[in-house]
Amino acid sequence: MKIIKGAATPVLALLIFITLVLLGNAALAKSFGSSQNEVITFRVAQSKASNHPVSQGISKFAELVKEKSDGKIIIETYHDGLIGDDREVIESAQRGSIAFASSSTPNMTSFTNYFTAWDLPYIFENKEEVYKAIDGKPGDIIREEMEKSGFKVIFFPDYGFRQVVNNKKPIKLPEDLKGMKIRTTNSKIEQADFEAFGANPTPVAWSEVFTALQQGTVEGEGNSYSLLWDTKHQEVLKYAAEVNYNYSSDIVVMNKELFDSLNESQQKLIMDAGKEAVEWQRNLANEREAEAKQQFIDYGIEIYEPTEEEMRTWKQTAEPVWDKFVVPGIADPEYVDIILETLGKSKEEIFK
Fold first, then answer.
1. Do the strands 302-304 and 239-255 form a parallel or antiparallel pair, or are they unpaired?
2. Strand pairing of 158-166 and 220-223?
3. How far is CA 340 from CA 74, 247, 344, in A?
4. Per the similarity annotation, which family is this (predicted)?
5. Residue 320 falls inside a structural domain
6. Does residue 115 lie within any of the structural domains?
7. What is the distance between the alpha carbons of residues 74 and 62, in angstroms, rounded to a whole number?
8. In sequence order, which residues have a C-beta less than 8 Å from that of residue 155 and are 6 or more positions away?
9. Could you tell me if 306 and 243 are in contact, meaning their C-beta atoms sit under 8 angstroms apart?
10. Pairing outcome for strands 239-255 and 200-203
């Protein structure tokens, strides 16, 4: 945390700089958190491009904090992986080197395996279910769990549903993916999804996916329309199947020790800004996804929307993934039941 006061000697400025480097935001908050006239500057970092809806939601959060605090709390935003990838910035926030960080939730499973349940195919079938779970008991359980690892959850930006895209042939049913090399994340569940669909899942670092598609190392991938368009993947793709096999969320966290060092009004201000930011961001994310889908169509990408019966086939093909991962120590069965209860449905209803 950086503190700016009216007049500081060069020696004092040097001491503050050294303290920032050695002790990080949390220690500084304890040392300088009492003045009513100070301007406090925090940093938030994440890896997505600055024009992505997740990034824009984080920028909106920073804007709201500045507005609500009358300029007394400034949050500097660092997008595009300027400070590090998801894992690096989250670990920096945990240490207190930076105040805030954002990551996709699959990268947070090392802190709590509850996030693994969110990755299960078709556990969320639409955005209404996503928001109901995140804003309800399932989300609250994760918020409490994250505090044990030193994080205060501020909000969950909406990332979107993943679709199956490729540059080889039209895909209507899982059987059409047989033998195809499909890029996945390091998520074991996503890899199992594509194994169930009959494809050859191939984990590739995100920064290398465009080239891998260009060179034929992989023939397809799974991702949201908006992220694919914003990273120009339409240039190396020809077909898309809108199957919503997985929902991805992001998470914005603050170093818990630093959050606790703030006074009650500052804490409330930050949390209120997070609530407003996520509402604004969700609307933006949904609008952007629809816009990106149309951009794909206009570009010439062939998008196939499965019939109700075909969607049933996609779901039933993915059902064995639940049998493999909904076990103690991975996707905790009790937590999965809490999600389903919150949504008012059962596993049987999803895969019937």
1. parallel
2. antiparallel
3. 39, 15, 6
4. Belongs to the bacterial solute-binding protein 7 family.
5. yes
6. no
7. 7
8. 57, 61, 252, 274, 275, 277, 278, 281
9. yes
10. unpaired
* DSSP code string of 182-237: EEE-S-HHHHHHHHHHT-EEEE--GGGHHHHHHHTS-SEEEE-HHHHHHTTGGGG-
In this structure, are 205 and 321 located in the same domain? Answer: yes
- Residues 257, 320 within the same domain: no
Q: Is residue 65 classed as helix, strand or coil in its secondary structure?
A: helix
pLDDT digit string, tens, across residues 134-190 = 999 999 999 999 999 999 999 999 999 999 999 999 999 999 999 999 999 888 999
Tokens found for residue 44: 């938030």
Alpha helices, H only, 96-136: 114-118, 127-134
CA distance 142 to 10: 45
Which residue's structure tokens are 């500045």?
66
The structure tokens listed for 189 are 């569940």
Best CA proximity match to 261, nearest among 26, 5, 8: 26
DSSP 309-349: HHHHHHHHHHHHHHHHH-STTSS-HHHHHHHHHHHT--HHH
Q: Tell me the per-residue pLDDT of 63-105, one tens digit each, with 9 for 90 and over.
A: 999 999 999 999 999 999 999 988 899 999 999 999 999 999 9
Residue type, 263: N
Look up tokens 């970092």; give the residue. 45
Tell me how many degrees the CA angle 308-313-319 measures, rounded to the nearest 5: 125
Read off the DSSP letter of residue 111. T
Domain boundaries, position 61 = 2-109+149-158+249-288
Per DSSP (E only), the strands in 82-190 are 100-104, 151-155, 158-166, 181-184
- Is 104 within the bounds of a domain? yes
311 CB contacts (<8 Å, ≥6 apart)?
A: 243
Q: What angle do CA 266, 268, 273 make, to 5 degrees?
A: 100
Q: How many helices (H) and strands (E) does the chain have?
A: 14, 11
* Size of the chain in residues: 352
Residue 265 lies in a domain: yes
pLDDT band at 107; cut points 50, 70, 90 = confident
Task: Compute the distance between CA of residue 22 and CA of residue 28 in angstroms, rounded to an integer.
Answer: 10
- What does pTM read for this prediction? 0.86
